[in-house]
């Protein structure tokens, strides 16, 4: 299990942050109420658009709050992938070849103790012939008892089997085909302890400012992005879980607990300033949509100078 006290590495690639370790994902969700979105495909799963696996991609607001709270670090994923030397690659190939030789030798030794497939011993052939003769005698006796025409046992035996049944050809025990080694599977290591493909030293950043200076991370870059980060952090500190709210006409969905157990109570829309102008039709639309989806709509006004948030809840009400 991952150490809950350590900072979780978030691998940054093309401006998005990913968590690749399943233990880190469990810590993010269970201890830090950060959900993210699973984006990886699962092998042998038909519904790839319903059930997904690692990596976990995080919203930029989730990344900012985790780094600011010293719960995670940012890793430049492109720089962390190192090109090994020629000598290292040669050693890795030799290690793979040696592993393959050992597995082949073990498989061949095991195959010598197994009987060849589909080869019957003399005793098995004799028992099979006796069973066929008994079936033929029983069929002949039944036909005589019922007064039916007697059918040649050889014809009866050939017609009694289903026509689509495969016929197995028996080979003599000493045929050359019996000496063929049966197929087997060997496993080659995908990596080696001596081969350093990935090294995070020199490309790990503990603050947003350091990552921005290195060109690894740029969010937040303007007032609206700072407002979204501020609103997200304030709701997160109050103990809420957050998810993307674009499906419901807002910036975030606000859950009272884990989204696997609770429905969202609010749809949050971020306003860049507390005194920003809002069109009346927007208020009506937010109120009607929130009521139709059994949610209240939150208008979250961010004050950049004081780093504070003011909330207004919109709910549709009947009159008269």
UniProtKB/TrEMBL annotation:
- Domain tRNA intron endonuclease catalytic residues, every copy: 228-311
What does the subunit comment say? tRNA splicing endonuclease is a heterotetramer composed of TSEN2, TSEN15, TSEN34/LENG5 and TSEN54. tRNA splicing endonuclease complex also contains proteins of the pre-mRNA 3'-end processing machinery such as CLP1, CPSF1, CPSF4 and CSTF2.
Protein name, UniProt field? tRNA-splicing endonuclease subunit Sen34
Instruction: Write out the entry's keywords from A to Z.
Output: Endonuclease, Hydrolase, Lyase, mRNA processing, Nuclease, Nucleus, tRNA processing
Function, please? Constitutes one of the two catalytic subunit of the tRNA-splicing endonuclease complex, a complex responsible for identification and cleavage of the splice sites in pre-tRNA. It cleaves pre-tRNA at the 5'- and 3'-splice sites to release the intron. The products are an intron and two tRNA half-molecules bearing 2',3'-cyclic phosphate and 5'-OH termini. There are no conserved sequences at the splice sites, but the intron is invariably located at the same site in the gene, placing the splice sites an invariant distance from the constant structural features of the tRNA body.
What compartments host this protein? Answer: Nucleus, Nucleolus
Native organism is Laetiporus sulphureus 93-53
Active site (record annotation): 255, 263, 295
UniProt keyword annotation of ATP-binding present: no
**Gene Ontology biological process terms from the UniProt entry:** mRNA processing; tRNA-type intron splice site recognition and cleavage
Reading the lineage from the top rank, the first entry is Eukaryota
Enzyme Commission code(s) on record:
4.6.1.16
Domain TSEN34 N-terminal: where? 8-77
Give me the ranges of the annotated region Disordered: 161-180
């Amino acid at each position: 299990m991952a150490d809950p006290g350590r900072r979780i590495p978030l691998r940054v690639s093309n401006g998005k942050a990913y968590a690749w370790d399943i233990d880190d994902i469990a810590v993010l969700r269970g201890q830090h109420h950060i959900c993210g979105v699973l984006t990886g495909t699962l092998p042998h799963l038909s519904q790839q658009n319903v059930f997904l696996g690692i990596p976990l991609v995080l919203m930029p607001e989730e990344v900012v709050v985790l780094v600011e709270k010293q719960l995670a670090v940012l890793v430049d994923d492109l720089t962390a992938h190192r090109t090994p030397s020629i000598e290292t690659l040669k050693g890795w190939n030799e290690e793979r070849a040696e592993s393959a030789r050992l597995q082949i030798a073990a498989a061949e030794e095991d195959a010598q103790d197994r009987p060849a497939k589909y080869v019957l011993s003399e005793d098995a052939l004799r028992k099979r012939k006796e069973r066929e003769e008994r079936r033929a005698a029983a069929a002949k006796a039944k036909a005589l008892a019922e007064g039916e025409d007697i059918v040649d046992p050889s014809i009866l035996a050939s017609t009694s089997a289903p026509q689509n049944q495969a016929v197995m050809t028996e080979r003599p025990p000493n045929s050359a085909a019996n000496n063929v080694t049966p197929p087997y599977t060997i496993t080659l290591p995908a990596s080696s302890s001596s081969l350093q493909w990935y090294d995070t030293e020199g490309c790990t950043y503990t603050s947003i400012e350091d990552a921005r200076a290195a060109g690894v991370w740029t969010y937040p870059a303007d007032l609206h992005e700072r407002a979204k980060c501020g609103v997200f952090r304030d709701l997160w500190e109050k103990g809420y879980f957050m998810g993307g709210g674009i499906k419901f006409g807002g910036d975030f969905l606000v859950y009272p607990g884990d989204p696997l157990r609770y429905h969202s109570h609010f749809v949050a829309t971020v306003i860049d300033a507390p005194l920003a102008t809002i069109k009346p039709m927007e208020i009506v639309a937010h109120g009607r949509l929130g009521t139709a989806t059994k949610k209240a709509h939150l208008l979250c006004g961010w004050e950049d100078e004081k780093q504070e948030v003011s909330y207004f809840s919109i709910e549709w009400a009947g009159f008269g």
